[in-house]
Amino acid sequence: MTEKEGRINLRRYFGTDGIRRIANTELTPELVYKVAKAGAYVLAKHTDHAPTILIGRDTRISGTLIESAMVAGFLSFGANVKLLGVIPTPAVAYLTRKLKADAGVVISASHNTYEFNGIKYFSNKGMKIPDTLEEEIEEVMESGKIEELTAIRDKIGISEDATKLAEEYLYFFRKQFDDTLEELITPDFVVGIDAANGATYQIAEKVFQALKIPYRMIGNKPDGININENCGSTHLESLKQFVVENKLSLGVAYDGDGDRCLAVDEKGEEIDGDKLMAIISQSLKKKGKLAKDTIVATVMSNLGLKKYTQNNQLSFVETKVGDRYVLEEMLKNGYNLGGEQSGHVILLDYNPTGDGILTSLMLIQSILEEKKKASEVADIIHLYPQILLNAKVDNDKKYDYEKDEEIKQAIAKLEKEFAGNGRVLIRPSGTEPLVRVMIEGEDQQDITQKAKEMVNFIETKQGN
User: Fold this and answer.
1) Which of 70, 131, 163, 195 has the maximum number of C-beta atoms within 10 A of its C-beta?
2) Closest Cα to residue 93, out of 83, 103, 82?
3) Does 238 qualify as catalytic in the annotation?
4) Can you give the pLDDT at residue 9?
């Protein structure tokens, strides 16, 4: 376990992606108020003025409840607030940077079901705030200083409706894609869009209309409780059926907060995050726009992506699981394309966070430039069958496999059997008493059997 992972495990509120809990029982208005007040204090320490903070949310029924508590905390400290309403996470990141606001906050639990909600802070650079600032916010929350951090008289903050700022995000897409797509779009290229009944349900339609891309839409009737429900990037079945039945050219699916995108070709076959990065990398490389001819991905990415880079004279850089670690690597070494198998794709020349709509437009442009069907374009990469199973272990033992010689030998023996055409990845769950066993290889039945054997072996050695 690294020092950073150890610190995250010791935290009370923030996890690997902000705070995420069941709304109103675990993520209570009282807790949200404290998170806002402490956050405003920590952010204000780094400025010489009253901070301005943007707040966006998804479509969950608890969104306005959490937003109200958040606003109260910010205003009580003396911070000013601009309310963006229902808007995707990447839009908050983009607008925070463009408007030179001091911070942005997203109220969302991303791909989770409606009863959850969450809070993510973004810095003035449009990136998730570093672990150190999250830890500082927690320290203030626990210190008993909260009541002292109270603005009086004319120092009390002001909140304003800023929903019209969504037009700035729309203009961003028009500026980037208007001219190129106008030359490429044909009336018979029709895209199916699944907005997951989430944060993209309005803005995605406006973007496709503005760029004159023919489309048909599902998952765009949110009622507060149907976000991610059998729809969106975590449930592609509806989109696959919609694309095939309506003979569409492509389908794109976003998650609840709009920072992920997965796609479906005209045959209803999935185009996951690894395939998306391969397709986009090829397009960028042809134009000389792929920085250092490199793709950055996590250890969970398919072996096929690594093989694709080797076969196409590209470099492949691997990070720990989590889009924040992908971004860290990209910033550190000047790369501009990275992401995760789950559909978080970061195109750093445009936005420093995963952006589902942006990813889908880059995919559409890549397909149209090739003058091929989506399935043909996706054939540039061969993905290996993959299985992920969980070994149940005591929470305090889930890192012990790293020191167990027998387990290490079993992994080495298995990898030797694959002879470069498969791999074994063992990692602890960040939130549960589990060790995750992922195996890739050329035969699904074979790797499934080997994964079950490895899970049984770990549980026998270290199980609860």
Assistant:
1) 195
2) 103
3) no
4) 47
Instruction: Say which DSSP state 16 is in.
Output: B
What is the number of domains present in the chain? 3
- Catalytic residue, chosen from 110, 233, 281, 301, is 110
**Please, where are the H alpha helices in 185-236?**
203-210
**Residue 38: predicted pLDDT:** 94
* Edge-to-edge strand list for the sheet holding 315-319: 315-319, 294-298, 337-339, 345-347
Phi, psi angle pair for 53, to nearest 5°: -125, 130
Q: Is the same domain home to 222 and 363?
A: yes
Element (H, E) at 159: strand 159-161
* Regions in the chain scoring below 50 on pLDDT: 1-9
pLDDT score of 8: 43
Please, are residues 54 and 95 in contact by the beta-carbon 8 Å criterion?
A: yes
Tell me the CATH number at 119.
3.40.120.10
- φ, ψ of residue 366 to 5 degrees: the values are -60, -45
Domain boundary among the residues 140, 165, 190 is at 165
Q: 361, exposed or middle or buried, with CB in 10 Å at 0-12, 13-18, 19+?
A: buried
- What pLDDT shows up at residue 431? 66
How many other C-beta atoms are found inside a 10 Å radius of the C-beta of residue 2? Answer: 8
